Automatic annotation (TrEMBL):
Lineage per the UniProt record: Bacteria, Pseudomonadati, Bacteroidota, Cytophagia, Cytophagales
Pfam families per the UniProt record, alphabetical: CBM96 (PF24517), He_PIG (PF05345), Malectin (PF11721), Por_Secre_tail (PF18962)
Start and end residues of each Malectin domain: 10-161
Secretion system C-terminal sorting domain boundaries: 554-630
UniProt protein name: DNRLRE domain-containing protein
Species, as recorded: Dyadobacter flavalbus
GO terms, molecular function: calcium ion binding; carbohydrate binding
Amino acid sequence: RAAGCGPAAIRINTGSTAAYTTADGRQFSADQYYGNVTGGTGTLASTVDILNTTDDVLYRSERSAATISYSIPVSSGTMNVVLHFAETYFGAPGKVAGGTGKRMFNVDIEGSRKLTNYDIYARAGGAVRPVLESFAVTVTDGILNINFTSGSANMPKISAIEVLPQTAQANAAPVLAVIGSKTATVGQPLSFTAAATDPDQGQSKTFALVNAPSGAAINASTGVFSWTPATAGTFTFTVKVTDNGSPALSDEETITVTVGNATTTNVAPVLAAIGNKTVTVGQALSFTATATDADAGQSKTFSLVNAPSGAVINVTTGVFTWTPTAAGSFTFAVKVTDNGSPALSDDETIIVTVNNVTAPTSVTLSPLADSYVRNGSYAGTNYGSATNMVVKSGSGDGITRSAYLKFSLSSLSQVSSAKLRIYANNTENTTSINLSAYGVDNDSWTEGGINLNNAPASSSTVLGSVGVNNTAKYYEIDVTAYVQAQLAADKVVSIAVKNPSNQNKNVNINSKENASNKPQLLIVTNGPVTSGARTSAEELFSSESKVEFEKSTIYPNPVQKHFTVEFSKQHSKDVSLEMISQLGRTYKINLPEHSRSGSKAEVNISDLSLTGGIYMLRIQSASLTEVIKVFVVD
């Protein structure tokens, strides 16, 4: 490579064999330092006017090829490279039609891509118009390398190249923007941001204060000034900015801050909206009152006005707590007071509505349809009219049988618990037979049409199980989760009952066609019950209900607050009691421990708050359910 040149500018009239001096005296040499050229040069007719310049000759010549390389000897260091372009073919007089996208090429300088798919026509705004692109470049090996390569369309071209050494400039002082005098108040922060400009790019600026009052400070980098004056008066000081040039230069402004005493007018606090509340007897109510105050530093105290008994509020945090013991509507005020002079306050009157506890309702649903299906040669037989359903599993023709039951949930809006109750027994021996319930998502089956061939498939997940022995009675399977899911879906529940253990014993289940002890879906709900469902009260008070009164006895009857119950010996193990009103509300009665069959228990109902009227006392154990009509008097 050639030895590096001096610091003088290098200018090349590319594509021309002649030197050229511009109107302002810049001298361009004939084309040199080029190589790796797979094309040639071109010259536009001298009659063609190059727009927007007086140096038409410089732009009429060009070097154009698929690839062009220039290796220019320079002194290592930083320099500016200026590339001169003009589109003298596409759109030029006597040439082909012009337009954007017809010539697009790339330029790399010192191995770094500077222009990508460069379009002279688009950049200059048309043909025969000069356009210059300038780049700051650092050369470390004494050779400036410029490479032109084809891009998306046609070939690159270049009209002239300038290499201009960068010269050091004298440092210029920064310029501080006008700040102006300020006013402030004792005890209140004063803040502003000093700003400055510097024509010397890249230099840093440092802010400072001269003769500043005590406590005043300025961020050296950001220029943010902050001060909270402690006394009134007039304070004069200087804000200064200094650059890091050589030599360092600065600019400054002397400003005056006039500090006045704070006004003493107190502003009332503002209580955030609380709103009315609703709660249930025995349920804790809690909320947090909050407030703001424009007077910084003042404390706020919360209080209640005409609050109900037991209601309290934390004077500092505003946390309100209350557990009401009686139903009703309670109106009171929440108040916040500051410690200003004079003390000011804000308050809000709220209403808390306390409702009685809603007792859960028991609902007994009867099947919409029930039947059983049988395998083997009976697979096409329908048993929908039978008074009993048979469940059995084993090997052999016609041995395996499964029961299907369907219930409607259309009268319900909420389910707390659900139990499938089937009146069943093992008709072959005393063995306990495992009956399991399975969900059936397809509810399209009908009682008169279902058989094994068309029965919808049941889930493989067991909902619940129960052991059925030779004692004919109601057996219960908890199916709460599945019923809740169906309530949220189509409000129809289909359940299959099977013997998954292959015990090969007949279990008879009373169907809905039976005269008594029909299948039931026992629901406990905290929501409203619409028409179509029978509540426990309706089931018990109905003349069709088959109940036995003679087994267990109570006395006295009518009952005021206490009565005695003697449990029948037909009950097994522990016995439970509940009182049911004619509206279906259920009241659970707490019994002494070990209340069993054949025993006697003293019952206290004074804490149930029963109104006078007729109730049903349900006595239930694992083996028996009884109902006794009770007359309650006030």
